[in-house]
């Protein structure tokens, strides 16, 4: 385990120490309306179907109104926005947040702490977003840094939010690289603080979850040095709720899951429109949002697949590496897909089909976004270059161009990728490591810059 300055941030420290208090499911100020409190992370793209997009569309409120009409209960929703999952866990254990969404490592921490007492116990009810190889978490360094691989982090200072999915990926990456624990200092910082310290040079690298790596790279404030897909194991974010809510207000839980399904269907049907809506609501650039929720990005399948649960089980040792967790998570009891099965059936869906579906429902190898309006999807990176070249020749604005790493399967910005040319063929990679791997089987490939590749590509 890398050296960690201030092992637990103030937010996480509260999360692991708080006890149960009053339940949030109580009448609001009007006295005759039951308020449901939802904790979400507006800038975490993997949770938008249970957070930012869901809130912007009003799906939960609509489904709650339907549930209330059936039961004679009036509901209202209060949305609470956080930077990480830790304060959501704090609120859930304190009985002040009913439903939340967070990444895999925070989910495990939530379960470990909340389930130590039946009165505060929680359950994972659905997946909000996943990646089959783990590309949702990344490590970046300054654009002009000599660091271009996790192997270069020996003796360096890395910013990460301890207990987050980004930190968990960093720990696994260092272990994979065989870097001794005492050779990397981890500065425990919230994402925004970490971004600032990276830019100022107070830290050498930043390990975070989406959308922070993509945002900093898009802003030309960082370069990608480690793609979480290099670990080759699934990562996920999910919806979690207090068990008292699941037991006492099943109609509320079903309404939320139906609403998540509504938001998911809307995103899959028109990911570009969804990206613009999330960008407006979160303040993130739409190009960054679309990087993750566009075709071939995050998989928004809500099913609790066995492969994802197995990945959670494999992440359990992480808890022991960051502190004392007296209540190991029993995933058999912690993961509950019964409410989701019911919600899918009630909306005319097929849950077994969701479980069986392999890969992302929306797939594209390359894509070019024009003038903030339309996009063109392509079969390969070479075709992306042609589209960008032709657009420039026509004085047509390219809002963003996206490519898919052929080694790791990660969707990334074309102008921030590592490009190789092999004859007339061009390929783009998220990191120098990935490019080196591909080059092993393509010894004739040469490195080219993005602008150079555009000028060299043939019709």
Automatic annotation (TrEMBL):
* Regions that span the bilayer: none
Which PROSITE patterns does this chain map to? PROKAR_LIPOPROTEIN
As given in the record, the signal peptide range reads 1-22
Key word Transferase present: no
Record-annotated SsuA/THI5-like domain positions: 134-273
Q: Which InterPro entries match?
A: SsuA/THI5
Keyword line: Signal
- What domain of life does the UniProt record list for this protein's source? Bacteria
Q: What is this protein called?
A: ABC transporter substrate-binding protein
